# Entry
Amino acid sequence: MTHLKHKILITGLVCFSAFNLLAQEKTSPAELTYRNSFNAYVGLIELNINYERNIMQRPHSYSNIRAGYGYWTNLQLEGKCIETAFVHVLGRKSSHPEFNLGIKYIIDKAGKENALVPLLYTGYRYEAPEGRFVFRMGLAFPSIFNLGIGYKF
# Structure
């Protein structure tokens, strides 16, 4: 079972790298100005630092891939966590609905058991099309509530 978790984690990181390489094309001025962002998120039972990379730009939405590292605690597990997620944001103005789908690998501090759990999120994201500040809040599984800030570059 541990080998399966490691394979899934490695596959996620390889996919993240592949998306990052494919997303290197130049954009026109009408498209997203900043393609990268660093974010810090606080959930009800976790803390995270993430890197997000824009991979697809459409007229009224865009998609990002995100990888992060953080700390997790609840009544059953406590320790570090690594996550990867596909992020889809709708809208062209400053207020956006956001949806995430990914996986979170929790490394138990006590060493008794590690866990691989799905990562689901739906919420609100504020980011001006030409600005660098990102604010986000919403409902997430497994962290229940999520609040975060970020910086685009």
Remarks:
- Residues 2-22 form the longest helix (21 residues).
- The domain at 2-25+36-152 is CATH 2.40.160.20 (Porin).
- Confidence is low (pLDDT under 50) at residues 18-31.
